[in-house]
């Protein structure tokens, strides 16, 4: 567990109760995959969240009180999010919860937050089911129907009429994104020439890729997470499958290109943020992030940052951390000027915002276009 304190470590016994309301921090819980298979996601989102909390506290906190961020590692393992969130609520008395990136992890924690009427804001879980859990569950990212449609349209615009799909059946994110991509692609005259499946943790994808190659697709949609995608790309190249791979925001991870090398050059994926964005807000965020961590932020870092800033803004507008007013203040978020764009939460507590499409080449990600909702 990591704690960030901005209050004095000791107070005189005689004055503890007289100053508590002014000096005690608001406790905010965060659960993230800091280790394990999805560690790149959790580490990035946590760094963005941490940077936001430090900025908020340096500016005087919220309602005159600092935020204490209590971060727990769910180790990328099923079962951990539920245990962690119960602990954050019952033992740490957090006023809100931030997390997770992976939709399956958020879906595990969301019912507990809903039952306890504790607002939960996911920075990056795109599966539609996440916010369907209840009125205390929010997200600040676009959802898979939009992301799937974006990539379907992009494929058609590039003349790729025959597409194969390779889905991770163990991830709600991957299953949902594949579903919405195929629905839009078929509805607009595209052809799905092959569907293949794999499971998180698999290392050998040659049987699926051999089948896909035989179907002669123009492109392959791989809505998985970076660990498996990097191996899929390497094995596809070894098998002589030379068509572009297409994906979603789950591709973002520091090991993607380290493992895939040049195997993903010429491929494309949808995402939430580009560090190449020339807007002053993004440039300022990138500069601050690089100064603190010595690296360029990815979209998970940017979403983590925005999630903490949106929560702080909602507490200010609510004037309290009581769950009812706070929940309503988060729900009324409109045109929040985040580093990932203007964020407005709709009636289903999902963010209406733009997506970006990035391509891979020269050892990095490069901006292609922005797509509005």
> Beta-sheet strand percentage?
15-25%
So, the CATH homologous superfamily of the largest domain? Response regulator
Span between N and C termini?
38 Å
Give the helix/strand class: alpha/beta
Q: Note the total helix count.
A: 13
Task: Identify the CATH architecture of the largest domain.
Answer: 3-Layer(aba) Sandwich
The main sheet comes to: 7 strands, mixed
Task: Pick out the low-confidence regions.
Answer: 1-21
Average pLDDT value? 93
The domain tally reads 2
Q: How many DSSP-defined strands?
A: 16
CATH domain class of the largest domain: Alpha Beta
Relative helix content = 40-55%
Radius of gyration: 21 Å
Walk me through what this model shows.
The chain is an alpha/beta fold. It folds into 2 domains: 2-141 and 278-353, 3-Layer(aba) Sandwich (Rossmann fold); 144-271, Response regulator (Rossmann fold, 3-Layer(aba) Sandwich). Helices cover 42% and strands 20% of the residues. The strands form 3 sheets. Strands 8-7-9-10-11-15-16 form a 7-stranded mixed sheet, with helices on both faces. Strands 1-3-2-4-5-6 form a 6-stranded mixed sheet, sandwiched between helices. α2 packs across α12 (299-318), α3 packs parallel to α4 and α12 (299-318) packs across α13. The radius of gyration is 21 Å and the shape is globular. The two termini are 38 Å apart. Mean pLDDT is 93; it is low at 1-21.
């Amino acid at each position: 567990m990591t704690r960030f304190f901005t209050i004095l470590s000791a107070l005189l016994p005689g004055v503890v109760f007289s100053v508590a309301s002014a000096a005690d921090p608001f406790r905010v819980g965060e659960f993230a995959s800091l280790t394990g298979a999805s560690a790149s996601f959790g580490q990035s989102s946590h760094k963005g969240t941490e940077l936001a909390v430090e900025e908020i506290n340096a500016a005087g906190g919220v309602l005159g009180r600092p935020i204490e961020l209590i971060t727990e590692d769910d180790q990328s393992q099923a079962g951990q999010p539920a245990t962690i969130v119960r602990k954050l609520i019952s033992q740490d008395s957090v006023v809100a919860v931030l997390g997770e990136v992976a939709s399956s992890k958020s879906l595990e924690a969301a019912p507990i937050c809903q039952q306890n009427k504790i607002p939960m804001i996911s920075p990056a879980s795109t599966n539609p089911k996440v916010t369907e859990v209840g009125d205390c569950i929010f997200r600040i990212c676009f959802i898979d129907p939009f992301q799937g449609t974006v990539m379907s349209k992009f494929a058609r615009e590039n003349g790729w009429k025959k597409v194969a799909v390779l889905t991770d059946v163990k991830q709600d994110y991957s299953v949902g994104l594949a579903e919405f991509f195929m629905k839009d692609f078929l509805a607009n005259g595209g052809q799905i020439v092959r569907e293949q499946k794999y499971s998180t943790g698999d290392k050998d994808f040659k049987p699926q890729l051999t089948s896909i190659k035989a179907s002669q697709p123009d492109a392959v949609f791989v809505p998985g997470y970076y660990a498996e995608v990097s191996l899929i790309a390497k094995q596809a190249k070894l098998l002589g499958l030379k068509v572009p791979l297409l994906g979603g925001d789950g591709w973002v991870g520091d090991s993607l290109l380290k493992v895939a090398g040049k195997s993903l050059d010429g491929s494309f994926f949808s995402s939430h943020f580009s560090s190449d964005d020339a807007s002053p807000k993004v440039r300022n965020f990138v500069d601050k992030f690089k100064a603190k961590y010595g690296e360029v932020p990815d979209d998970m870092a940017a979403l983590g940052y925005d999630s903490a800033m949106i929560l702080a803004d909602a507490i200010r507008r609510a004037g309290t951390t009581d769950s009812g007013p706070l929940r309503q203040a988060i729900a009324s978020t409109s045109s929040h000027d985040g580093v990932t764009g203007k964020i407005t939460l709709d009636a289903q507590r999902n963010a209406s915002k733009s997506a970006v499409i990035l391509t891979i080449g020269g050892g990095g990600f490069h901006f292609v276009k922005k797509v509005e909702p």
